[in-house]
Amino acid sequence: MLSEEEKKNILGDLYEKLQKSQQSGQHQSVLDHTDKILQVDSAENQPWARQARLTALIKTKNFEQALELIKGREKQHAFEHAYILHRQGKNKEAIAAIKGEDSADEAVAPSARIQVTPPVLRARQAGRSPSR
């Protein structure tokens, strides 16, 4: 079992690598780093890794894995869900997903999402110890 300090250090290193992979468009590397992050901490505690993983899965055309990742969260990922369905040739379902026929009150357009740096990486970049 890792101590909180060890976990923060490992996550900080992994998020730095993840950020570099994202910036250089190395999607397979993004998937590798998110796997490691999610082994250290749960997906519920690491929404940045989960979102990075979803984006990389879509960009690498791993649509079935992307659908599995958002299973149960389709409303929060309505646009990604619709895009995946469209790419699979399921256009009627994609339209229904984007229209929110399942009540997409929680749906947020990707352009409306703020790209937020994970606290552990933000603290490291600022040169201080991360806090939760």
Can you walk through the features of this model?
By secondary structure, the protein is mostly helical. The protein has one domain: Serine Threonine Protein Phosphatase 5, Tetratricopeptide repeat (Alpha Horseshoe), CATH 1.25.40. The chain is built from 7 helices and no strands. About 10% of the residues have low confidence.
List the helices and strands and how they pair.
Elements: H1 4-23, H2 27-40, H3 47-59, H4 63-70, H5 78-87, H6 91-99, H7 119-126
The CATH topology name reads Serine Threonine Protein Phosphatase 5, Tetratricopeptide repeat
* Biggest beta sheet attributes: none
Q: Output the structural class.
A: mainly alpha
What are the secondary-structure elements, in order, as H or E?
HHHHHHH
CATH class annotation: Mainly Alpha
Give the overall silhouette: elongated
Number of domains: 1
What are the low-pLDDT stretches, counting only 5+ consecutive residues below 50? 102-109, 111-115
CATH architecture descriptor text: Alpha Horseshoe
Number of strands: 0
Query: Approximately what portion of the residues adopt beta-strand conformation?
Result: under 5%
Distance between the termini: 19 Å
- The CATH homologous superfamily is named Tetratricopeptide repeat domain
Question: C-alpha Rg, in Å?
Answer: 16 Å
The mean pLDDT is 84
Q: Summarize the amount of helix as a percent range.
A: 55-70%
- Count of helices? 7
GO molecular function, one term: 7S RNA binding
InterPro entries: SRP72, TPR-like_helical_dom_sf
